[in-house]
Predict the 3D structure of the following.
Amino acid sequence: MTLPPAILLMGPTASGKTAVAMELAARFPVELVSVDSAQVFRDMDIGTAKPDRATLDRFPHHLIDLVSPEERYSAAHFRADALRVMAEIAARGNVPLLVGGTMLYFKALRYGLADLPPADAALRAAIEAEAQVRGWPALHADLARLDAATAARLAPADAQRIQRALEIVRLTGEPLDAIFSRQVQEVPPYRLLALALLPGERAVLHERIAQRFDAMLAAGLVDEVEMLRRRYALDGGLPSMRCVGYRQVWEMLEGRLPAAELRDRGIFATRQFAKRQLTWLKATTGLASVDCLDAAAVAKMAGLVDAHLASSHSPP
């Protein structure tokens, strides 16, 4: 039997993924599935660029507002949830369109997950305590000596991923790539069309990022973080508060970042995040890419989707 179709729409932050996805949803029998490690958190709306209620009423998104900001949500959780939702969408005769910028989630969905050791609370606490004394850039340097390939993919301040990578290498004595090389791929049972929105001019994407962060500040990002601090039992080490934008506001509210530097630090962190996304996308094979700055980007994406759906109805 021919496998059902599914569409993956990837791209860096501020590339216009959500707008393109909604245009596609207006033209094709697709249902949108968010692939965003920040939009899974409830009450985190402004800093995650979560679609507003009116937009969600018109274009419902699966896999947003899943957990409290106090909780943790992993790539394994995402893969299980995504496969369940995709099966439900296909059973309704529609096509899953997964859209977002969390590249680890896309990788987990497409290829499965390596058999990594479970979290070790004592070791994590020890790494956290070490970071408090030496700083995360120093621990990033330690990781570079133990697992150079993984360290090269991480920013020196990416505390969450540095902590996990150090935890794994200290538990197993192996770098992550050695573990991944033994991974048995678990390809999902769909005919996947992998699309990417990539900027033809990086400077224009940088300007978009600045404009979007300014809009978030104007919309009340600082007030949102203050509300989250009142409503939930949070600390700066939780994944929710390590999200780009939230981390900088948290540091400002804690007195570790001058208010006058918030905008510049937030924009810089977002641009660094986009750079990592682009590096990942450029190393990913099997992508059909479209320039997100092209005025005909939606039409080109629609043409690719139309051809993919048409081929899904053709005899094998």
Q: What stands out?
A: The chain has a mean pLDDT of 94. DSSP finds 14 helices and six strands in the chain.
